[in-house]
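User: Hey, quick favor. My workstation is busy. Could you predict this chain's structure for me?
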Amino acid sequence: MAGKSKSGDRDGNVTVSFGAKFARSEQFKTVFREGMALVEAAATYLDGDGRKEARKLRPPHSLAYATESMRLTTRLMQLASWLLIRRAVCEGELTPEQAKAEQSKIKLPVIGAEQSAVPRDFGSLPPRLRELIGQSIKLQERVIRLDQMLGTEAMPQAGGGDHPLKTQLSRLRSAFGKDAE
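Assistant: No problem, here it is.
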């Protein structure tokens, strides 16, 4: 039997989904945890110390703060949505077809696009906001590279799950408020 070995078919007749394998990997779990921790850190900052710091700013720096905090929130919501969709398919909460439809609603910019550009008044922003922006841009670049590498055809296959997508989305909405929908 040419082409066969003890480990299975070596003639290319067995397809291994990189997307499915990646979604179950420690690397994905690490990216997921980092992404969700960043979402939580940003929400805590913007709702607490960030508000206090924003009140101390004068125009045009207060406008820069408002603009960049909204961009940060939007960026993190898109990234969290991407991560949650990938995980939901892996855990059997969404079919790959449902995930494709949901993922088509997420607007991940091309690496190097204007959204990732440093704002003109970046230096006037509070240090913690600048740090969160930098971390979110790095996460965005990682997710965009992963998305390009995985492609929409490489959605992970379902496989049972304990963590409902609705719970995660509810946590995001509560972290960013009702207006985040």
